[in-house]
Amino acid sequence: MNVPTNTQSATLTFWRYVQSAEPAGNGDDRMVVSLTTSDGQAIGLPFTLNTSAQRNVWAKETLSFTLSGYAFPTATLTLTSINDGDNKSSFFVDDVMMVRQCLAAANDVLVATDEEPTSTLTLTLTHTAFLPAVDYEPSPMEKDLVIEQAVCTNFIANGGFEDAANPIWTGAANTSVTIYNVLPNGANSGVADPLIYTTRPRTGARGGRIGSTGVNSYWNELLQTVQLPANVASLTLTYWRYFDPNEGSISVADIFKIGLETEKGIEIAKPQQIDNRSSGRRVWGQETLTVNNAFAYSNQKLWVTFKGQTNSATPSALFVDDVQLSVCVGR
To answer: Do residues 221 and 210 make contact, with C-beta atoms less than 8 angstroms apart?
Structure first.
């Protein structure tokens, strides 16, 4: 970029989006933003963004550089990503702008100040871009939706399970020899498992239950289909759960998975897993599951699923209640 001789400082702004397969909180992969002289010397300290930063959401960054007395006609702005040998990460940037503050020239618009007269001018950048290979590339629309105020709505019906006649929740249940009756209109085996019970609700009179308090080698699923609107900006599932295990906590035995899937059963986020090693036994606690690339599922139908699997001895149950799917839509 060109740097006029009377430039006092420059302010860089840009939007960034961090995508990473590194564990949450891990900062091994990083992007470095630096401004250098034409002979390669750093101007100020480089800015480092790593994978411990908030991920899968557009965020704005602002950096300042002191250029008073700068002796070169140009400077180079560089954004470099560095990945280690473990998990893949990508850093996306958009809407990059560099604005300089300078001593007032004859044709500049002056800024009112008690100090020495200054003006602000936008610097012209020449650029070279590197696009990494990624699992998912965020749409520019996602960033634009962040700028506008989003409207958020709960898309789960009968999330408290109080309306016993409402067929919005459905399910399946079986052992190796029995297919159970579930709601609504399950197979006619003569053995019932309604999946919604008056046993141990968190609020109201009813709650859902997966797993079992007394059946071994048992699998069941509680499910609701949700139609998403256009322009989804964020997608967050919250629910309350009461974990009632009868297994020890040394190795995995009874497993519960909570997730969001397409109508073809494809997971759109890594499901949460609660098993007999998990903490929070026999107490109500709230859980949250967030979809990273929610915009990609606009206008689609999704399954909200609660799945339970007990092993061949000492079964466990997971009670759920007050389920919500918060869908935020950009305007």
So the answer is: yes
The CATH number of the domain where 14 resides is what? 2.60.120
What does the chain come to in residues?
Answer: 331
**Single residue among 109, 138, 167 that ends a domain in this structure:** 138
- Say if residue 234 is in the same domain as residue 280: yes
DSSP class of residue 39?
A: T
What are the residues facing 232 on neighbouring strands? 329
Minimal CA–CA distance to 79: which of 65, 66, 92, 64?
A: 92
> Are the C-beta atoms of 152 and 328 separated by less than 8 Å?
yes
User: Is 224 within the bounds of a domain?
Assistant: yes
Q: Which neighbouring-strand residues pair with 61?
A: 14
pLDDT in tens, 48-105: 999 988 888 888 899 999 988 888 888 899 998 888 877 888 899 988 888 887 665 5
Integer CA distances (angstroms), 163 to 158, 240, 254, in order: 6, 18, 29
- Measured CA to CA, the distance from residue 91 to residue 32 in angstroms comes to 10
pTM for the whole structure: 0.58
- Among 138, 171, 199, the domain boundary falls at 138
Residues β-bridged to residue 103: 118
What is the tally of helices (H) and strands (E) in the chain?
Answer: 1, 18
> Which range marks the domain in which residue 54 is found?
7-138
The helix (H) or strand (E) run that includes residue 143 is helix 140-147
- As for how many domains the chain has, the answer is 2
Q: What is the pLDDT of residues 175-189, one digit of tens each?
A: 988 888 887 655 667
Count CB neighbours of 308 within 10 A. Answer: 25
Cα first-last separation, the chain? 35
* Among the listed residues 76, 87, 89, the one whose alpha carbon sits nearest the alpha carbon of residue 46: 76
Indicate whether 2 belongs to any domain: no
Nearest one of 1, 150, 118, 144 to 70, comparing CA atoms: 1
